[in-house]
User: Fold Alanine racemase from Candidatus Flavonifractor merdipullorum.
Amino acid sequence: MKRLILEEKSLRHNLDIVKEKAGSCRIWADLSGDADGVGVVAMARFLRAQGIGRFAVSEVGEAQALRKAGFVDEDILMLRSIAQRETLDALLDLNVICTIGSLDAGLALNTAAEARSTVAEAQVQVDAGLGFGGFLAGEPEKLLSVYRNLPCVALSGLYTQVNGARPDGRDAAGQLEAFRQMVAAVGQAGFEPGEVYVGGSFALLHCPLDGMDAVRAGSVLLGRCRRVRGDGLIRVGYGEAPIQEIRWFPKGRTVGYETLVTLRRNTRVAVLPVGYQNGLGISRSRDPGLWAALRRWWRGRHITVRIGEQKARIIGRIGAAETLVDVTDLKCAPGDPVRFDIDPMFARDFSITFS
Assistant:
């Protein structure tokens, strides 16, 4: 059986770092992407036990799963700015806080709430440079139209998300400053912006949070985000699968997937029933540039697994559904468990276990 194992001790360690970085800011836990592959309900239960009760999702199904699992009173924010009536009705049924990233989305939400004779809660998204949605920083009049024209919507927050350095030279600090100017414009127009915050693990680790009421954190909880040297985070999540079979190959035999490897000695080879289709060897590309690409290439050629306390090297490239491991000098047998690093976001066909 293939298992994805999440260590609660490591999760608590990373959460402590998040809390320290957040300081006085409240924390929204970003559970989008099925909590980065961990499972939205399982992660929410862990976080609630640690005192975190505000969640952000990216799919209606994730909100439905949380409400069905008993997360009745917790705040749930939909990160997508949505204008489709059917989807908005589903979010209102679930008592989810909606995101408004355009006037069209705001008017659609206002119409849906008016039809129910109710007031919908929403937060306003500002695009400070990420490009995925929100009112463009530097266009405050468009943003203010939402505050002026939606009588059936209660606006409880204003947020943005930042990224790293951009070709136009606007780094994360510049993006945050552009966002603060939008917040100031709302106040100067006589409106209350509500909770002001920045989303994303990058901002949490890289940016000063002065003047922010909250911060949103997701992949940082797994230690699988754009890292800072000495940040203390632990990469959470590893895979486990049994050795499928063991074979001997003579010196000079070629083996492998796509790029063949010529064996330099008589080699004892263990076959693992996992490959890149299961997520083995797949990682999030975070850093641009030639040196970062070279580092990824080098790591890809030196991937190891663990059999008990023994380290074993993968032979050649990882296959689609199977992977070869050199166990010539190791004591092992078919059925022995093999552990390997795997990003939960890409793990497929694994049962999930919290340990």
